[in-house]
Amino acid sequence: MKLPIIGISGTMMKDNNDMFEGYEKSYVMDDYVQAVLRAGAVPIVLPIIDSSEKVNEYAKLIDGLILTGGHDVNPLIYGEEPDVKVTEILPKRDFLDYELIKYTTELDKPILAICRGMQILNTYHGGTLYQDNSYCKTFHIKHMQVHNPDVATHTIKIEPNSVLESVLGNHAVVNSFHHQSVKGLAEGFRITAESKDGIVEAIERNSEQWCVGVQFHPEILSHKDEKMQALFNVFIGATRK
Ligand SMILES: [Mn+2]
After folding, report:
1. CB atoms within 10 A of CB 54
2. In 68-123, beta strands by DSSP E
3. Distance from the CA of 225 to the center of ligand 1, in angstroms?
4. Among 101, 118, 120, 113, which residue's Cα sits nearest to residue 59?
5. Sorted alphabetically, which keywords does the UniProt record give (predicted)?
6. Gap between the Cα atoms of 232 and 137, Å rounded
C-alpha cells in the first residue's frame, strides 16, 4: 500500500553564520516531521516559492497538508493596517500558504492547520484576527508561555461532536505560544475549542473536507502525549479516504 505523503508548509530564516551571513534557508521545525513519521506517513517540506502554478503541483503531489506555526499574518491581507503590536511578517510566506490552502481545498484534501496555520486558514476563508490578544476584552491567561515548549500550561474546553473532541475528549491541557488569535470567524467554520478567557483554540470547517485548525502545538507535545499524537494519526487516516 502506498504511504500517504504529507506536505509541511515551509518557512524561511536568514543565516547568521559568518560565511553565509544573510543567506536565506528554507526549513520546517523537525517536530512536524517526527509527528508525521510516527503516524506512518511520509513527510515532505514545501519551500516558499512565488509561482502559483508550482504550488498547484505541490497540492497535487501531497495527500494532506500541515500548515505550520511562525510569523504573524500580514494584516493587510485581511483588510487591516498593521497595529503597533504586530511582530514580524513574511508576505511571501502568506502567498505560499494562501495558494496551498486554495489548491488543497480545490482537491478536497485534508488540512491540519497549527497556530499561525490556523490563523491564516481563518483569514483565507474571510475571517479576521486579533492583532494582539490584549485586544480581546476577556483575555487574561498567559498564551505566550516561557521555556519548555513541551509542557502543557493552560486548559481548553472542547465542543461536542467535533473532530477534536473525538481525539482529545471534552477537555485538554495544551501548550501556548501565540500573541494573536481568531477574532472574526470565517464563514463555513465553527469554533471547536476555547480557553477559559475566551480565546479561540480550535476551529473546524463545516464541509466534506477534513479541515481542522488548532492554536496550540500538538506536534511539540506528541512525542510524550498519545492523544496529541492521535491528532496526527486521525489526520493521516483522513488522507486515506
Ligand atoms: Mn493558547
Report:
1. 10
2. 111-114
3. 17
4. 101
5. Glutamine amidotransferase, Transferase
6. 33
Pure H helices in 107-208: 116-124, 163-168
5-131+179-189+200-238 CATH pick, 3.30.1330.60, 3.40.50.880, 3.90.25.10, 3.40.50.300: 3.40.50.880
Q: Is 127 helix (H, G, I), strand (E, B) or coil?
A: coil
- The catalytic site residues sit at 115, 217, 219
Helix axes 52-61, 91-106, angle to 10 degrees: 50
Element (H, E) at 27: strand 24-27
Per-residue pLDDT reduced to its tens digit, 77-132: 999 999 999 999 999 999 999 999 999 999 999 999 999 999 999 999 999 999 99
Tell me the residue type at 143. Answer: H
Angstrom CA distances, 9 to 32, 111, 186, 189, 208, stand at 10, 11, 21, 22, 22
pLDDT value of position 80: 98
- Cell numbers 506512518 correspond to what residue? 40
Residue 56 in grid coordinates: 498547484
Between strands 64-67 and 111-114, the pairing is: parallel
CA–centroid distance, residue 175 to ligand 1 (Å): 7
Q: What is the pLDDT of residue 133?
A: 98
- Residue 202 in contact with residue 214, Cβ under 8 Å? yes
